[in-house]
């Protein structure tokens, strides 16, 4: 039997987007498959209850289940460290690798790597999140040396509701962000939320906006493939990230 590449994806329990989108991205890679393990996430907010959803225990229990399927890479397909602080994802990756023996990555750390590889310093940000969550994200990126020059957010808190945002609304958010004052300095648009259906729109939006569009589901798939030694250029039709970066 030909060698298989098994990728594990940690999934928020109320997310209905990342599984079908991840699977669609990998359709042309016959030896690669994605496998999913969920833990409880129902809301995105800065309350103690909401932040506690991302404690290591539950996430590591989900990662342990993926290790039973012998996934060689385990990715956290979520963006929590963008408001919790990037070090939370670094600690998570260390814990996953120590506990399971798999290589580990996350959406947010993958985006950080993409920024570094492309030399990006300024971006426009699109999310479905509340204003206080958005402000925390912008502040964390600023502390890391990246400037959010324009942003749009929807003010939503219920995680399930993010997947209800339609393609036209999401496209409009990206266009509005890129038409905001100062957005002419943006070197890319970042769609930050793995329950937004941004990835299928990336190819068209890049043509419309004239800059790369980096989606958080695509970012963790890109990084997982790199860790597994798979040429990301084989992923066709999902934007410049897979063709041009790294």
Question: What do you see in this structure?
Answer:
With 246 residues, this protein is an alpha/beta fold. It has two domains: 5-109 and 217-244, Rossmann fold (3-Layer(aba) Sandwich), CATH 3.40.50.12500; 113-215, Rossmann fold (3-Layer(aba) Sandwich), CATH 3.40.50.12500. The protein has helices spanning 18-25, 48-52, 56-68, 81-84, 86-100, 107-118, 131-143, 159-162, 167-178, 202-209, 216-227, 240-244; strands at 5-12, 32-39, 73-76, 103-106, 122-127, 147-153, 189-191, 213-215. Strands 2-1-3-4 form a four-stranded parallel sheet, with helices on both faces. Strands 6-5-7-8 form a four-stranded parallel sheet, with helices on both faces. Strand 1 (5-12), helix 1 (18-25) and strand 2 (32-39) form a beta-alpha-beta unit. Helix 3 runs parallel beside helix 5 and helix 6 crosses helix 11. It starts with a strand and ends with a helix. The mean pLDDT is 97.
